[in-house]
Amino acid sequence: MPQFAPLKNDTFLRALLRQPTEYTPVWLMRQAGRYLPEYRATRQQAGSFMGLAKNPDYATEVTLQPIDRYPLDAAILFSDILTVPDAMGLGLYFADGEGPKFERVVRTEEEVAALRVPDMASLDYVFKAVTQIRTELNGRVPLIGFSGSPWTLACYMVEGGGSREFHTIKQMLYSRPDLMHRVLDINAQAVAQYLNAQIDAGAQAVMIFDSWGGALADGAYQEFSLRYMRQVVSQLKREKDGVRIPAIVFTKGGGLWLDEMADIGADALGLDWTVNLGRARAQVGERVALQGNLDPAILFANPEQIRAEVERSLTAYGAPSAGHGHVFNLGHGISQFTPPESVSAMVEAVHAFSRAQRAA
Ligand code: CP3
């Protein structure tokens, strides 16, 4: 195992652990991506998205691009949640303009019976990238590892790609809950092993993206998404070399379930923009820190308006206090059409206003 440089900025990790910070740390979901011209240039060299993700040199380069450009407080591994179903043999590909797709789906009794936790060796390119990124970060900011939730991965595996209505997977859920549970149990084992291997490789925090949990009915969410995230969290290595590895759980559209989400053992909950930060803080109390939740569309406004919305959001969260923690973020991934200058305005406003809040 390589020796990594000591961390120079641990504000993000302290906020996740609900310890005092001098300002509110900030990063952005999808911070490395198509809105950055330097990303588009590297992607063109690599030829494709998976060409980028499977090459640790390229993955390192694009992970560091937003860190070099903005004073962000965390880096996130450049990869994708769909690497896991790809390693299960489903054949991930990106059709131009159509988003991710799979060559093979998991729908029938036979397809479910054949599903296995993938050999983590087939995901070695991800763990190599984690180690190389952590090395090249040289302690500037912590590195976040991530995975999709068991439910969100199942959505892609059963539907065969993105979906609006989730008819196929919901049909399985309601008519063959036994098959659904088997898929989710395998996914949960795979996700736990995958995140633990990222922690071993050097990830300093981990995040579970439950992008489609919000498509579920109340009751179904608890049984088919939350339950399996709890299973994953309970199996995570929570300490590495004597340092706590915080876990963040983000269900997009999960605002109505925060109370139950706060009890699954995660250190922090991600919030989308439908949630009021102050109300969420009161609801979760000192059980978890919060991460979020600016509407990514605000980044299409002018810098003055962006600053005003950042202030509104930090004011809604309220003054920092013992036992609480907040990491500023968007409520979902940044749009590829975002002007890069908007991100500067946002990050600077978060740092300046949150320092002023503490001085008041
Ligand atoms: O946050 C980061 O900077 C880390 C990288 C990251 C990517 N995908 C890179 C990526 C992360 C954390 C993800 C997670 C992811 N991937 C999720 C969960 C988060 C969410 O947005 O809800 C989901 C649902 C996916 C599946 C996926 N991968 C989609 C829907 C797409 C977009 C397809 C398209 O053409 O718009 C991808 C591809 C992808 N993953 C891109 C990036 C930067 C764009 C690919 C490109 O360069 O063409």
From TrEMBL:
Record's keyword terms, sorted: Cytoplasm, Decarboxylase, Lyase, Porphyrin biosynthesis
InterPro entries the UniProt entry points to: UROD/MetE-like_sf, Uroporphyrinogen_deCO2ase_HemE, Uroporphyrinogen_deCOase
Record GO terms (molecular function): uroporphyrinogen decarboxylase activity
Residue ranges of every copy of the Uroporphyrinogen decarboxylase (URO-D) domain listed in the record: 25-34, 144-160
Encoding gene, per UniProt annotation: hemE
Protein name from the UniProt record: Uroporphyrinogen decarboxylase
Lineage per the UniProt record: Bacteria, Pseudomonadati, Pseudomonadota, Betaproteobacteria, Burkholderiales
Complex formation: Homodimer.
Subcellular localization(s) per the UniProt record: Cytoplasm
Similarity annotation: Belongs to the uroporphyrinogen decarboxylase family.
Reaction catalysed by this enzyme: uroporphyrinogen III + 4 H(+) = coproporphyrinogen III + 4 CO2
Source organism per UniProt: Massilia terrae
Enzyme Commission no: 4.1.1.37
Keyword Lyase set for record: yes
Record CDD domains: URO-D
